[in-house]
Amino acid sequence: MKQLDVCLTPDLLHLHQLNNVVVVVADIFRATSCMVTGLAYGVGSITPVATVEECKALQEKGYFAAAERNAMKVEGFDLDNSPFSYMSERLIGSHIAMTTTNGTLSIAKAKSAAVKVLIGAFLNLGALVNELRSEQYDVLVLCAGWKGRPNLEDTLFAGALAEALKDEFILVEDAALMAQRLYQQGRGNLLNFVANSSHVRRLQRLGIQKDISYSLQTDLYDVVPVLRGSRLVAMH
Ligand SMILES: O=C(O)[C@H](CS(=O)(=O)O)OP(=O)(O)O
């Protein structure tokens, strides 16, 4: 039987074997919610990069560029890290370069070794579950966390995936069981469950409220972003 494991933060990724593993990167607030939204709204591709400098270089080549650090847009870039910014008509068919504090760094860490990198959010949970059911490989959910620390919302998402796939995948390690049990506890009201979390408090301090409830909605979109070369594109 296939195995599903959870890496609670990218700083623990060195403990995981990624050969023949599909990695699902999750950064609920807000990078992977942006990626799913953008591709659902018709963005052509999103190139995740780890640094602001790499993002700038792609902007100079004609990409729309999204650069965020500590939840704020970096000066000189076109887009911030709000999913609502990815709903614009001007982005349909466009190529976006994106760097964020935690999410794109996690993708950069996973991409060299994984057999495939997929992007997960509550927004595309059902589509992702269907995709993973037909995968022949083990799955690792990589939670982006916050600057090397685990966080509640990404772990909840990992738990939602573990719960949905529990008949097809064995949950071998305690991190997967912890995530699953956390989700079982919180699923009745995700918004309430994350209310005092560090990321929610940080976003609220900056007046960013609507992204929180938006990103906790389940199954809004049928799109599964997959990394092809350096670009994330919609899988089907
Ligand atoms: O913009 C975000 O929500 C975060 C920034 S921080 O974690 O609040 O500093 O970036 P992300 O890479 O999407 O976690």
UniProtKB/TrEMBL annotation:
Sorted alphabetically, which Pfam families does this protein's record hold?
Answer: 2-ph_phosp
Q: Which cofactor does it need?
A: Mg(2+)
Keywords assigned by UniProt, alphabetized = Hydrolase, Magnesium
| Recorded catalytic activity of this chain's protein | (2R)-O-phospho-3-sulfolactate + H2O = (2R)-3-sulfolactate + phosphate
UniProt-recorded Gene Ontology molecular function terms: 2-phosphosulfolactate phosphatase activity; magnesium ion binding; sulfopyruvate decarboxylase activity
Q: Which family does it belong to?
A: Belongs to the ComB family.
Instruction: Name its species.
Output: Persicitalea jodogahamensis
Query: Mind telling me which InterPro entries this protein's record contains?
Result: ComB-like, ComB-like_sf
EC identifiers of the protein:
3.1.3.71
Q: What Gene3D superfamilies does the record point to?
A: ComB-like
Q: What is this protein called?
A: Probable 2-phosphosulfolactate phosphatase
